[in-house]
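Quick one: co-fold with L-MYO-inositol-1-phosphate.
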Amino acid sequence: DGVTVTALRDLAVRLATAAGALVREGRPDRVVVAATKSSEVDPVTVMDRASEELLREMIAAERPDDAILGEEGDDVAGTSGLTWVLDPIDGTVNYLYGVASWAVSVAVVAGPPEPASWTVLAGCVHSVADGRTWSAGLGEGATRDGVPVRVGAAASLGTSLVGTGFGYDAARRAHQAQVLTQVLPKIRDIRRLGSAAIDLCLLADGSIDLYYERGLNPWDMAAGAVVATEAGAVVTGLRGGPAGNAMTVAGPPELVAQLSEILEAADADGARSPEIG
Ligand code: LIP
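Sure, here it is.
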């Protein structure tokens, strides 16, 4: 329908900011920490759903022919060839505990609604607690609060600060801990900040040097990935495969190559241990 990447990016920013305000206002002062996303009625689930509902309503009003893929709720089919990929709260554990690193992540992609075959056209990650907003449009660069950002120029793997994250499944975690024993001695340090979307944006603006994670969902990474690539990062899987659930590695090309070698040797994407899932 002739919509521009710039217009889609602007809409992504408006959506993420509006949902962010709702979720910030709705966070109870004393969140019951015992409640987790595994319960259907916990405060996080309630706010996750309210946030995604607002995003869906705004998209339906402004872009009624677009499809929607969200963390909460059913997929909506569209006719325009564009799909909005929504994470209403990325970093839910931080949100639950009142740790600042959580975000609303909104991306719009072109092509079939399977991550391996789509192209992310625009995305916004709004870190609600501190108000920082990263956004990018394909071919238009990435910004944080309107100021262009670039990936850092870390000299070597040994001086790199590396972000990562862990899944919620125990067997998967044990495997991820083993991988970490191979990575940690070879880098400056690890950060586990708790929101993959924010991790990718911190990589994009040079706050961290590299990032890797197994087990990401499309909504965790779609917006962060376009911010990172538009800031000069490569975002990829292992052995030349695409970034995705099995593995996402992001950073400047040379460092990604070095880290990938270690991750491949450690079977970080589980290619040699399918029983772990
Ligand atoms: C979470 C991520 C986190 C990652 C978890 C999970 P949620 O998303 O962003 O960094 O390690 O596996 O996917 O559940 O908060 O939307």
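If it helps, Residues 87, 90-92, 165-167, 194-196, 213, 215, 220 surround L-MYO-inositol-1-phosphate (CB under 6 Å).
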